[in-house]
Amino acid sequence: MDKPLILVTNDDGVYAPGIRALHEAVSSLGDAVIVAPERDNSAVSHSLTMNRPLKVVQLERNIHTIDGTPTDCVTIATNKILRRKPDLLVSGINPGPNLGDDISYSGTVSAAIEGTMYGIPSLAFSLGGGPPYDFEVAAAVAWKLASMALSMHLPPKSLLNINIPPLPAGQIHGIRFTRQGRRRYEDAIQETFDPWGRKHYWIGGGTVHWSGGENTDEQAIRQGFISVTPIQLDLTNHDGLSYLEQQWQM
What is the pTM (predicted TM-score) of this model? Predict the structure, then answer.
């Protein structure tokens, strides 16, 4: 019987230390193949490259890179590179958390979304905190959850967004199954000027404000827990649909 086929990808690029740690961690679970962008694609969300051809380069056995986005990597890997549909997709390990509204921008999570669209059980891993990053604990968490995903079913049409606090293993309190919080930035657009005095804008930084209440991904990480959030493909607001059907008389 064939060993499980595991697709490993990310948004930080094929040379990022997080993806190498993830690949090493899951290689004991099956045939793990990296297909990742050739360079950093952070915050590209779920974009596909459709205005030019894409090139695949094999760097080593079971390590490929593509000059495109994380979503490009998943769709080309699934349809052209791998010998069959993967049994599991793991994305990451992202240096920095993917929590709350940031999920919408995340290439790490979007790779898992693409895998889920192909019917592949998919997990996105991110490590909280800031540099320097130590991926050892996060890789051990990834191994544990990947092994569970291979032996058990994920929620239907859902992926798991997993965030690990930047703590030693003995200081992590456990795992919480959480919901997505809300994250808002103030003063995140900076004005700057080039040498000729022309104004430009730089998006990034600012003051972060969290909301969403109890049992959110952000709260779990702040309290020293691993956050596991099921993300569904269906973006329909079903309460909103009922409201429109009842209140908007067309």
Answer: 0.90
Low-confidence ranges of the chain (pLDDT < 70): 1, 185, 206, 209-212
Task: Determine contact, residues 25/50, Cβ cutoff 8 Å.
Answer: no
Phi, psi of 28 (to 5 degrees): -75, -10
Yes or no: say if 135 and 21 are a contact pair by the CB < 8 Å rule.
yes
pLDDT tens-digit readout, 115-138? 999 999 999 999 999 999 999 999
65 contact partners, CB below 8 Å, separation of at least 6: 14, 35, 36, 37, 38, 56, 57, 59
Sorted by sequence, the CB contacts under 8 Å of residue 233 that are 6+ apart come out as 113, 116, 117, 157, 158
Dihedral in degrees, nearest 10, Cα atoms 234, 123, 217, 182? -40
Three-state SS at 172: coil
